[in-house]
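Need tokens for this chain, all 257 residues.
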Amino acid sequence: MTTSAPADHANLLVHAYLDGELDPAHALEVERQLARDPVLAAEHAQLEGLQRLIRELPLESAPQGLTRRIEAAIGMPQAARWASHPSYHPSWRALAASVVLAAFLASGSTWFALRPGPTATVADMVVANHLRALMAPQPADVASSDQHTVKPWFDGRIPESPRVIDLSQQGFPLVGGRIDVIGRVPVPTLVYRRRQHLISLSSVPSSGSAILEAVPRAIAGYNIVSWTDDGLTYWAVSDVAPADLHSFAQDFRAVGH
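Here are the structure tokens for all 257 residues:
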């Protein structure tokens, strides 16, 4: 890590940042650390995914037997179960959140065991990277509308430079490029613009080479289109209309071949 604070301290600050517990000055410092430290940025993305998972847990009451097992798992004394709040009975969401949080703090790999699946995890991280870019002073590490300037910038920073395509005639001018982190792996991300909206396009190595049909979907209010081509899976994320994002994906694939 390239920050001045120890790793454990930085991780604690990320927790506090996500919980909204930092003052503006410390929040700004955490954002700067996230922008320059890919490992810390990956930790931030995983914690965001964990919070989303907890929020999406059902609100139904837990079966009595499960409640007792959860209480035992988190070390709650039987006699003092709800002594301080005798009328309070936690929901399944609250109990499960306690177990998930305790397990996560005990092991950094817990999020990977609890994730819905590899595709959903990548999608969550792609959206998180896009949100971080929107909060940063600039959405790209190299700002240029010239593909011959953006592509060489990646040389020496990642194993292989991405395919950079000029889509200005299609209504998607190039803004620049940056390096994001997906599953602790640095990946290239191109930034395009559609009117006042930014589009982040990340290319992630994949095992297959077949082209998949681009199907738009949304996460946290942001639309996503993904497809696979020549051993890379492309993820396009933006708050533009789904039809515009689908057109962007089609134009990128068409012009690139």
